[in-house]
Fold this protein.
Amino acid sequence: MNALPLPDTWLPLLTALALLAPLLLALRPAATGWAALAPLPALLLALGPAFQLDVDVLLLGARFGVHAGNAPFLLLAALLWGTATWFARSYMAHDEHAARYHVFHRLAMTGNLGLLLAQDIGSFYFFFAMMSLSSYPLVIHDGRRESRLAGRVYLALALLGEILQFASFSIIAVSAEAWTFDAVREAVLASPRRDTILWLALLGFGIKAALVPLHVWLPLAHPVAPTPASAVLSGSMIKAGLVGWMYVLPLGALAAPHIGEPMIVAGLIGVFGAALAGVTQRQPKAVLAYSSISQMGLMILATGIGLARPEAMTYVFPAIALYAVHHALAKGALFLGVGMATSAPRAAAGRALLWIGLAVSALALAGFPFTSGAAAKIFLKTAAAEAPGAWADRLALFLSLGAVGTTLLMARFLWTLRETIAHAPDADHAAARGIWVPWLALLALVIGAPWWVASVFAPEKAAAAASMKYAVALTWPVAAGAVAALVAILAVRRRPVEVPPGDVLAIGAWLFARAMRFYRLQRPTLGARIRAADEARAAARAGTKNLLRALAGTERYLRTLGIAGIALALLTALLIWRLGG
Amino acid sequence: MPDAASSSIWLAAPVLLPLLTALLASFTASRLRAALCAAGTLATAGSSLFVLARVVAEGPLRHRLGGWGAPLGIDLFADGLSVLMLAMTAVIGGAISLYASAYFTSAHERRSFWPLWFLLWTGLNALFLTADLFNFYVTLEVISLSAVALVAMKGGPVALPAAVRYLFVAMLGSLAYMGGVALVYAQTGVLDLHLLTGRLGEGPLGRAALALLIGGLLAKTALFPLHLWLPPAHSSAPAPVSAALSALVVKASFYILLRTSFSAFSDAALAAVGPVLGVLGAATVLWGSFQALTQDRLKLMIAYSTVAQIGYLFLLFPVAMPGAGDAAWQSKAWIAGIFHALSHACAKAAMFMAAGAILHAVGRDDKNSLRGLGERMPVTISALATAGISIMALPPSGGFIAKWMLLVAAIRTDQWWWAPIMIGGGLLAAAYIFRMIRYAFLSTPDGAPPLHPVPRRLEFTALALGLLALALGLASVFPIAVAAIGAPFPENWFMEAL
Amino acid sequence: MTTMQLYLITAVVLLVVGLYGVLIRPHLLRKLTALNIMSAGLFLLFVAMAYRGAAEPPDPVPHAMVLTGIVISVSATAFGLLLIRRMREATGRSDLPNENLEDDA
């Protein structure tokens, strides 16, 4: 971001270090403090000048680089990974599988930093896959049943995303012979199969970016991972999908309202749907996961604006970048705060500090005046004002309502966290002291870093956001949310309903079960219903079993020598026939 | 193929050295044998790499053994394709020797393994240095018989029926191939590939000859539906043998088909046969992958994965055949097939070696036996994972480069219908590998017995090969340049494809 | 019927009879014998091919190939016999079980 005047000769070395340092640390899984410094080269690169580095011998020619488009993302990733790794060192010290955790934590870090530095299809795809796949052991780390289930859903969707990405990349590479992202965006613009590529990229990256309805894995997977992993999953890795869009979509050069406007709608559904589902959650980390979907909805709708109306990109990109930095740091601090709370500081001073820190982060996320969230919201509103047609007016209101939702979510989060602490066993976490420093460092970043990024992008607007000018506009949604939360707490002593994490997936499974039951129902007595449900389940299981048996049976049939000999004879006859014709 | 291949006696060394080692190893006492086999491994691999260096420096080489020349004498011939296969055998073979030296502990096992292994190596090297239909038959027989014997060396009610079935299919395939050779000779009067250029497949006799040749080779390469013998044999053999079979032996018959089809087949014949081979290859990819997906034992899963990966090799024929499209893309598909053979050899050998280490440590290889191994045997699981990346064809692995080039060539020659097979095969590979490897990250079951200590050599040899499969993707330029030496496509196309 | 035709017909009959035995008869010894019958048919084909008319001596190349083929066939048969015997000792049967791969370890 041109803040550090690094000499040109350092840049290749720093790039190599940025990729190799976390990778090499993964080879020696000791809980060393050095690991927290692994993202340092990436941080320096993010702050340094723009550059581009071609490495022709790797793959089909690799290119790495930093430019205005990826520097903010690299900044947030380096900061969050650094603090989370520092945190993990003490936090995981008493975990019996700590070594395994550290290995995959660092591999995922390599993937995350690498995909941000990569400027060609092959390296990007490689690092993306590395990040996605290394996160799987993080998700199932504690080996509980729900973690394994979450892991399975996560893996299935991650692989589906890989396939969609691969499909879009291969169409691009084949039809336009484009390999670096500069060329890719031009190729997409000129491609006769432009819409196919755009849709594939939208869905392929949408899985990671929690685009509704591809978000189902997120509320399952983010909460079950160990706390430092949840922080980087929800803060940094979730942004990889967004970065993918920035790299592949020819934003600012193409007007594609037929894709941009559905993106705006999907983003809005995410903003409000996740807020509604989130307030019913009982686990603080599940509330935070839903909040991430809600916040990503804002960034998705901003991307949609840019795609629908290219002229808006001047305002849209700074808004997305700033929002990403702000959300990553604040969400990271909140997730790590859950870890702090369950490691239970017993001293009153410690508790007070913890709650103050959590409140600051929560207010920042809700966009309270003078917090980093305020700057992010102001930037976003400027971008929304550029939305095409009638969207501009509607979005102004929706954004404020979104802030109400976020405030409610934050209130719900603090409430559930309080309950969790109250019921937590008396934790005697010797590590507790070692996790304070990284958490406080992250809090300092939450308060300061987004403002700095804002002032780099647009100093006047940043100054305006810090003034009293927007105080009222920013305060009322938070106040309204707080009142609503208060009313909810007073009125609803017992929650009537909890949306199961994984919402659509769970609801889909439930509907399927109902449908099966309905289909099977002859006499709707309770006994018959239960029997019908059992039968449906048994039928499904038997179907799978029959399929497997058929596969194995056919294979066994093929294994007899006679069949093979006849197949050989028939094959020979077929070849003779083909050769004749 | 250029006729002006220079003469070089060095070509005989990669055949004679392992043969000598095999003979000596049959008679020497056990202490001496260890040193002998180490020396034999180094000499064989070294001479193969030396031939590679000579071919890179001088272009295709030819040597007439005893000065007889065709048709009666035996010619040794080496171009880029043969030295790549030779080098692949040298690297994987060296790793197998290293692994086996720690894997086999009883005197009985060592006495059976070493002579047979060097005999197999002799057959492989001789096959890769041959350019004559009848000598292909002889070398293929040496390979088949020593491979069957290696499968049978473990004995017992599983390995022996597997070996018998393997033997019968191999002999049936040989007979078909031999019948083809007879008809070729009846029609043309020559068997040397250079003299046969473009002559195979004309007339009724030629058609029958070609069909028999191909049929026999398909049975030996285990293409669906003739794959019956492969999973039982590959999964029941000892780990170093499984590695050799899956990585090298199935490539031998494929090599014959690749070499003959792009030199001796007439253009019309290749164009007629290409799509059939492609369809069978696609069926093999799907069938092998689905079967791999239903296996509960690691070694069986790996064996079925071999079936699936063999299928990919045959997708090159319809894309690279004459008349398929732009010649540059044809040559790219041809290279992609060779590259796939190389990277699959590294990855699959690594997987079987890792499975051998697990079997050694836990005593079983069903999926539950993998529980907790992510922490208890990190090196082995890393080997399995890195090799898996290449099988799944994720970048930066060699498998990725191969499938990527094939995919691009298929779409560029307007045969997009192979693309879903390739992508779907990769997805299925990811599914069956994760289905298995997932267990390594679950916690160790309570009361699990302690692991039998595993020699470090087993684990690290597997890991080295897994990493090599990855590295092939990073350094793909050299193998591609070597394959271009004497390739059946004009060279400027390769430069363009690079 | 010329001598050549007689040779060819005999060769084909031997090949078909052998193929039937290999594919259909379950006992492994029969299968192995049948394979040898097939080989004999094939060798006959080679030998017949060497004929170049009454005036010329027969072509030596097919003869050389048949000799090599016989050597290979003999060693493969010997090896096959040993394998079948070992298998019988290990499993107690002389035909190929359609082995269930899940059972073993």
